[in-house]
């Protein structure tokens, strides 16, 4: 029995020794040069019982960012490159810079101004003017003397700034030395998990790249912040010189040439497609007019009652009470007509977004190639600032409510497209295969299986589209759009705080009512399912 236990212990010890040898070979393969050092360092880190660093990498401390670059630890490279540059800036300011230069320049300007005032006092004929200019000159001379004192005091601190910079550099070097092995050990752990996506060893390419980055960034920043009068090239891009290089002298700048070319092309396109653009505006106006007649042309009690009943049926009594209170707030403050105009604008935009966005989303959900082709366009529609939309809208479609709706569509359509495509791609393949096995056609599969299962995502997209369209209400008022956005714009123009806040609350209540109704309707449908 004792012999068996002893044999098991020997076997376990030999297994541990084999595992350790394999681990050492793995570390050496990962580290490349100086593999033995990193074997010992990593074992010390593994055996450590506290978070205090128990290794010190002298090469990381001496070389700093160069070592990090050579080992492809780019996060550490950028962190300590920035920190060491800050330290070198302090060293430069203390060694060869002039910390009091700003105060000295201010004193020189103040002395020039005082001399001007004294000259005016000498030329003045009225005693009152002489006294006034003289008094002003004396005050400015006192300020100049104060500035000179501050300049001298700042200059006397140069030694302290130099010492501070040296201490900062020393601290940063020590931190890199103590923590370099720990950071590299984490990179080794990532390499063992996924060797294809984690760099290993010491790469000449990384060393060259790190040296180029340090040489290109460090000296320029240190020079810029330590020299009183740096090169003008570092302060402003030489736009005029570059434009002259490409266009020749006297032909304007690249900006003016490109802007004129784009304006000419847009004008030509607007003239060539005038009939098409007018047709689009007419179609949007017809939808808007129908909603406007229904909301504004109908008696207000009827519209209010229909909205409240819709809220009750869709989302329950609490939402209906909130809807009635919101509509009462809007009506009592005299916002009823403009609020209904806003609802008509948002309704027309959302209707068109849904009519075109859901079919596109279904197509993109079924065709990965089509989605990849359309994704850059959707990204552009969502990331481009909303104000930028208004420029081509004005150029092609003019001003007013219909062009504002078109701008709103551009801003509000991407969510319904993306979420519809996401919902279609989320339908399980097993369910679709089962439906096809039972003889469902492509249309039946889409209508009875895919769309119902994707409906939660589709309704989320519709809700997001409603809120994004409503957020464009204020912006489209800049191109002649009406509704509550016009009230907000006028309040901004005249700094009318009260009317602006009241109008803003009206928009807020409209957004909350629309959101609650849509969300409530979706929840009830979900409960039925």
UniProtKB/TrEMBL annotation:
<feature type="transmembrane region" description="Helical">
    <location>
        <begin position="207"/>
        <end position="225"/>
    </location>
</feature>
<feature type="transmembrane region" description="Helical">
    <location>
        <begin position="290"/>
        <end position="312"/>
    </location>
</feature>
<comment type="similarity">
    <text>Belongs to the binding-protein-dependent transport system permease family.</text>
</comment>
<dbReference type="InterPro" id="IPR000515">
    <property type="entry name" value="MetI-like"/>
</dbReference>
<keyword id="KW-0472">Membrane</keyword>
<protein>
    <submittedName>
        <fullName>ABC transporter permease subunit</fullName>
    </submittedName>
</protein>
<dbReference type="Pfam" id="PF00528">
    <property type="entry name" value="BPD_transp_1"/>
</dbReference>
<feature type="transmembrane region" description="Helical">
    <location>
        <begin position="342"/>
        <end position="365"/>
    </location>
</feature>
<feature type="transmembrane region" description="Helical">
    <location>
        <begin position="377"/>
        <end position="398"/>
    </location>
</feature>
<feature type="transmembrane region" description="Helical">
    <location>
        <begin position="491"/>
        <end position="514"/>
    </location>
</feature>
<feature type="transmembrane region" description="Helical">
    <location>
        <begin position="465"/>
        <end position="485"/>
    </location>
</feature>
<keyword id="KW-1003">Cell membrane</keyword>
<keyword id="KW-0812">Transmembrane</keyword>
<keyword id="KW-0813">Transport</keyword>
<feature type="domain" description="ABC transmembrane type-1">
    <location>
        <begin position="339"/>
        <end position="518"/>
    </location>
</feature>
<dbReference type="InterPro" id="IPR035906">
    <property type="entry name" value="MetI-like_sf"/>
</dbReference>
<feature type="transmembrane region" description="Helical">
    <location>
        <begin position="319"/>
        <end position="336"/>
    </location>
</feature>
<feature type="transmembrane region" description="Helical">
    <location>
        <begin position="158"/>
        <end position="179"/>
    </location>
</feature>
<feature type="transmembrane region" description="Helical">
    <location>
        <begin position="72"/>
        <end position="91"/>
    </location>
</feature>
<keyword id="KW-1133">Transmembrane helix</keyword>
């Amino acid at each position: 029995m004792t012999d068996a236990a002893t044999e098991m212990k020997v076997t376990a010890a030999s297994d541990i020794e084999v595992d350790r040898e394999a681990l050492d070979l793995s570390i050496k393969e990962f580290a490349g040069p100086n593999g033995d050092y990193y074997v010992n360092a990593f074992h010390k880190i593994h055996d450590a019982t506290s978070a205090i660093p128990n290794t010190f990498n002298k090469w990381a401390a001496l070389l700093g960012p160069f070592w990090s670059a050579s080992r492809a630890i780019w996060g550490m490279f950028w962190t300590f490159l920035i920190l060491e540059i800050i330290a070198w800036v302090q060293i430069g300011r203390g060694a060869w810079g002039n910390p009091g230069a700003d105060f000295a320049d201010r004193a020189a300007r103040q002395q020039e101004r005082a001399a001007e005032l004294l000259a005016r006092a000498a030329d003045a004929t009225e005693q009152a003017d002489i006294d006034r200019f003289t008094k002003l000159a004396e005050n400015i001379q006192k300020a100049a003397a104060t500035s000179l004192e501050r300049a001298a005091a700042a200059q006397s601190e140069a030694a302290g700034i130099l010492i501070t910079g040296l201490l900062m550099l020393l601290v940063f070097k020590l931190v890199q030395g103590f923590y370099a092995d720990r950071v590299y050990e984490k990179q080794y752990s990532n390499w063992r998990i996924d060797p294809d996506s984690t760099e290993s060893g010491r790469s000449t390419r990384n060393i060259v790249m790190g040296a180029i980055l340090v040489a290109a960034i460090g000296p320029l920043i240190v020079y810029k912040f330590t020299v009183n009068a740096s090169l003008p090239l570092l302060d402003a891009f030489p736009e005029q010189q570059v434009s002259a290089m490409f266009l020749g002298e006297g032909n304007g700048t690249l900006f003016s040439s490109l802007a004129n070319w784009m304006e000419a092309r847009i004008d030509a396109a607007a003239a060539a497609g005038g009939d098409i653009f007018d047709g689009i505006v007419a179609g949007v106006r017809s939808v808007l007019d129908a909603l406007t007649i229904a909301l504004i042309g109908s008696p207000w009690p009827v519209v209010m009652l229909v909205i409240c009943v819709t809220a009750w049926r869709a989302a329950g009594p609490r939402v209906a009470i909130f809807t009635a209170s919101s509509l009462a707030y809007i009506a009592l403050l005299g916002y009823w007509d403009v609020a209904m105009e806003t609802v008509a604008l948002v309704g027309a935009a959302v209707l068109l977004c849904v009519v075109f966005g859901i079919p596109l989303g279904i197509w993109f959900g079924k065709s990965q190639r089509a989605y990849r082709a359309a994704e850059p366009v959707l990204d552009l529609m969502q990331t481009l600032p909303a104000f930028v939309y208004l420029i081509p809208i004005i150029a092609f479609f003019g001003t007013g409510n219909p062009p504002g709706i078109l701008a709103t569509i551009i801003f509000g359509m991407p969510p319904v497209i993306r979420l519809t495509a996401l919902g279609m791609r989320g339908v399980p393949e097993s369910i679709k295969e089962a439906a096809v096995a039972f003889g469902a056609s492509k249309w039946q599969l889409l209508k009875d299986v895919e769309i119902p299962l994707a409906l939660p995502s589709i309704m989320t997209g519709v809700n997001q589209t409603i809120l994004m369209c409503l957020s464009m209400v204020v912006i489209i008022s800049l191109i002649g759009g009406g509704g509550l956005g016009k009230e907000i714009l006028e309040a901004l123009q005249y700094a009318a705080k009260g009317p602006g806040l009241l109008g803003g609350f009206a928009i807020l209540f409209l957004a909350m009512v629309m959101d609650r109704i849509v969300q409530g309707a979706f929840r009830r449908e979900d409960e039925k399912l």
